[in-house]
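Supplementary Methods S3. Input chains for the assembly prediction are listed below.
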Amino acid sequence: MTVSDPATAPQSAATAAPRPGPGGIAAAPLPPGLFHDGAVLTVEHLVVEFPAPRGRRVHAVSDVSFDVRDGETLGLVGESGCGKSTTGRAIIRVDRPTSGRVVFDGTELTALGPEALRRARTRIQLIFQDPISSLNPRRRVRDIVAEPLAIWQRGTPAEREQRVRDAITAVGLDYDAAADRRPHEFSGGQCQRISIARALMLDPKVVICDEPVSALDVSVQAQILNLLEDMKARYGLTLLFIAHDLAVVRNISDRVAVMYLGRLCELGPSDDVYARPAHPYTVALLASIPEPDPAAARNVTPIAGDIPSPIDPPSGCRFRTRCPFAQQRCTDEVPPLTAIGPERFVACHFPLATSGPRSSAGSAGSSPEPAPPIQVDTPPTAP
Amino acid sequence: MPPSPDADAAALPAAGARLAVAASMSVPASSASKRKLGVVFWIAVAWICLVVVMAVFAGLLPIDGPDNLSYLSKLGSSFSHPFGTDELGRDLFSRVIFGSRVSLEVGFGSIFLGLVAGGFAGLIAGYMRGIFDAVTSAVANVILSFPALLLLITVAAFWGRAWWKITLIIAIIATAPLFYVVRSSTISFAGRDFVLAARTMGASRWRIVTREILPNVMPAAISFGLIGVAIAIVAEGTLSFLGLSVAAPTPSWGNIIAEGQSSTAASDPWIWIWPTLIMFMTLLALNIAGDRLQRFFDVREGRL
Amino acid sequence: MSLLHKAGRLAFPDVEAPGAPPLLEVDDLHTSFRTPLGLVRAVDGVSFTLQRGRTMGLVGESGSGKTVLSRSIMGLLPRANLERSGRVLFSGHDITAMRPRELRQVWGAHIAMVFQDPMTALNPVVRIGRQITEHLRLHLSMSRSEARETAIALLNSVGIPEPRARLRSYPFQLSGGMRQRVMIAIALACGPKLLLADEPTTGLDVTIQAQILDLLAAQQAERYMAMILVTHDLGVVAGRADDVVVMYAGKIVEMGPTNALFSDVKMPYTEALLASIPRLTDPVHTRLSAIEGRPPDLVSPPHGCRFAPRCRYVQARCTEEEPPLVEGDTPGHLFACWFPVGSITTRGPRPTTAAQSGPSS
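Predicted structure tokens for the full assembly:
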């Protein structure tokens, strides 16, 4: 993997201040340690833009880089319009990346022709948010689940039926009762189980779960989350888990990436990010979650303002319009993704304190202004 | 609306071999199999079937030939002549049945052709979009912009009156609305996640269109097509009434009605009432069948 | 019950006066729908009272009857194929017995509703300003300019920037959060005494959800309204409601003051629902304890306790006799369970399925 030169990483990026433009984005150098050896999926400077009316562009994903290691679950979390779903779809090129690279298992997906892409896609499968819309209402469950095998002509009909039987059983449905029914006869949770069975038919390496439990009731959501964990263990899957619910993401993810308005804000191990968020947006997001416990004090007032339009995102840091700590510099420069600890990365000029010793690569030290006043229990660490 | 119980019948699966398949697949009782098309639909379908069977086997029925002049003219209804005879002494019942052949051939034939052509173009245009969509939509717009009846009359007057020519003209005109129905339905289904799922599984475009989209588009196309058949029968009848469809000795609903309304027959209204009634019943049955089918599938869609 | 008619308008006694009826009293309400499959008992014997200034959280999963209950309180249900009994008394007036003309006097002016989807609840082709002033002019007989000034003040109070300019906006020009603020402004326009918020934040982002919930709480306190917060999210009610009502299969299974209920959950369903929510405080890959099975068929609900088939503490008595809603040790904390959580030592073993023993990779 291309790892940018550690020496030049943060400072040069801070002065370069890449701005989005129609021709793509001047890529900021990436911090060392962002990519891992043997990562199964690497996303590098991914940019996805869509045309909008009157010649404008929707900046859905702007210069996002991360990787997913073999066997881990990476949670991609953020609010609507943050580009998390587009990122997932751009990885398998359902949405075409404007620029950037996606490397899966040594193959650069972004460089493949149609036929090679068709083959490569079989090893990355997608599970959708709406369990009912993702199943063809006119087909029987056995045909829906067998479809991937039918497309690729794998096995004899008898072998296929056995595999379909195994998969449907594995996701907790009774094959004999379910096989000849159509999707509308099932509940949302059951449809999501069928979707999962279908996604497993081609022995994928990576499964991208795009809000797989958002449409489900709480008790059913727990069943599906447990099922995903089981399937991951059983089939050795690597998951990219996209969701807006931070608690759900935390439950299932080894590492979590927080996105806001097309950019990556923060990336790190789930425990660490949730315990010691470094980006003001992560703090705000965590403070906004209603905990089912009246004793849990809500001492933090929610952040004000609306999410800006991705057609005309704010300059510099995209969170600055809602950030309580925004400075002039946040308007002028796009904060680069910076290492602030082992496995911890944040894109903020003035990250909040984390407990570990500050990485020498931290960008706060290069700040010319004095540290902003931050009324949080942990003081900012600008030396 | 009753609340839709959205829950999971499945028991929790354990990992590995200890799969607890205790899943009681208690499927919600309100499944589509319980939903009925209703008795009216089946009466309509029975009527259409009866008319079609009579038309197909008209030659084998124990009735007179439609051109047999051997009876008294303008007889009223009787056992041997249920509809009576017309002013030339031909058996009206026989003429109405033989006349239905032309109406049904033109009606079903033109819509079948229109559905094949318009449906195919609509599927491709709706799924592929882009330049093909732009061109086919423009063509369909042009066809829709012609005043259909005037076009029919003009073409029939200049080109000829053979039944297959009439069928072809109506088919071309019917292609445009059928194209739009199939196209818009295709567009809505093409945006569904199951189509995206098929794409990511590596399904070819042809497979996606035929396996995923076509089965979903068919119900709307067929129910709309049934109503189209009724419209086509009216169009043929109109041409026939104006003397622009099949030539005189061959009966068709339109020209029987026209003959019945001629001045000499004015005193005997049954001559035009009987064919009009049969035509009306057939049109009503087609419309009811199409409408009920449409609603039946809409409701099922609505559940999704 | 005395219906006080004054010149054709309903009069509502001051509920604060001594001896006055409670603001809202639901008395053994049954609401059923006739369907081809049988009678769907969506709300099956629900009773509670709500005093002015209180917030009640109405919690349940889909199919629990919470939405039908809130519509019944509003008198918003279609009359066709509906069977109902029981009473909904608002300031002593029975909503269920009202004629449409009377209901229209109640809606907006006395009871207002905030819907889940503001995009469909707002008229897309009418400017925001007119949608607010319409109500003011209808119910409060305001003049055009009075209504306009009031509308601006309302938009200001719900936190909409540049309210004067926003009056000329159409709903599609606003973001989801702003639309919900407009909905709240419309609901508050005529100073209702009861606000029904039906999943008001379900479609919104989490940071916006917090803003809207804070706004509702602030407005409710300021206006001394009663509020019913209908939601599937126990997290939403935990922080925002004074009292919580938990519904399951058309019945209230547990209700009580929020703190009392959350600190001492009695009904196994409530316990299971709480346990199935992933918590921020749990370690990564904590196995969630899902509720097995599915909610019962409301056409022929199970005999005895309706949660019994899914309950991990189920005993023979649960499937034989239906437990009544009774008060426990804490005043006001009611639950419908023969063997409330913690009451029996012979607790059934925890389920042997994967809920406990599964891997956590």
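The two ends of chain C are 63 Å apart (CA to CA). The first strand of chain C starts at residue 5 and ends at 6.
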